[in-house]
Amino acid sequence: MLKRLTIWLLIFAVFIANFSIAFVYVGFKLNQQYIAQNLCINRFKPSLHCNGKCYFMRKIKQAEDNEKKQAAKGSSGRMEIPFFQEPFSISFLEPTMAEKAAISIQTSAYAYSSQYLNSIFRPPKSVV
Question: Exposure pattern of 96-117 as b/e (b: 16+ CB <10 Å)?
């Protein structure tokens, strides 16, 4: 029950906010005789045949001003900051195949010389 009532109140509040001028007009038409006799500025000048239209125009102007204030109030509270970013791309280095380097083994004249003298150095003989 409470949820339904809340929903209808919110719908009614949105409706009133968007159609305030229509409600002013309906209120004027329903109370036109009272407005013409008691609230009209020109009520003491019946030759103008105002019939409360001056009061109605003043209320329409107030409703428009309130709508403008609400629109300005709603937009002034927020600040829009545009955000632009360059497209981000990742670039990888392509692997390159090293050219087959010619493996060069230096062939040098490796001259090993031994000064081993067989006559002087004799290996030991086993005594078993």
Answer: eeeeeeeeeeeeeeeeeeeeee
